[in-house]
Amino acid sequence: MASVPLLSVGFQHRKCDAYIKRVVGLPGEVVRIDRSGAVWINGQWLDEPYVRNWCSPQQPCSPLTIKVSPGAVLVLGDNRPNSQDSRLWGALPSDEIIGTARFRFWPPGQFGNLPEAYSDLAQQDR
User: Which residues are in the Peptidase S26 domain (predicted)?
Assistant: First the structure.
């Protein structure tokens, strides 16, 4: 199982809309995303306890396999069937990142600071 730090970033894609997405791939990593939205990094499955809305056979995700280029990251939304993310745009140039998400507004029952690690998030979301 792949282990990566929790990092949600805010960015302005194509100089228009601002988004918050989760970084799942760093420069040099080979990332594979299957039709369910599950992620493998360099051949290791990424455990994502925070993803609650996976793609289904009736509404499959766009699969993708990509080696992340230097100066870029791969980003995904947690709502896999409905997210505009690297599956649509490809790798995101790192210079488009404008910040790191630190606070959660939705859902209202989880309003507050975002945890610093996957294990903290998994415990908080249960």
Answer: 14-106
For 7, residues 6+ apart whose C-beta sits below 8 A from its C-beta are 22, 23, 100
Show the 3-state SS of 35-102.
CCCCEEECCEEECCCCCCECCCCCCCCCCEEEECCCCEEEEECCEHHHCCCHHHHCCEEHHHEEEECC
Cα–Cα distance between 47 and 20 in angstroms, integer?
20
The gap from C-alpha 122 to its chain's centroid, in whole angstroms, comes to 15
Q: What letter represents residue 28's amino acid?
A: G
Boundaries of domain holding 90: 8-125
CA–CA separation, 108 and 102 (whole Å): 16
Q: Identify whether 3 is part of a domain.
A: no
What does the pLDDT read at residue 119? Answer: 42
In what helix (H) or strand (E) does residue 9 lie, and over which residues does it extend?
strand 8-13
**Exposure string (b/e) for 56-83, b if CB count within 10 Å is 16 or more?**
eeeeebeebebebeeebbbbbbbebeeb
Sorting pLDDT into bands at 50, 70 and 90, what band is 60? confident
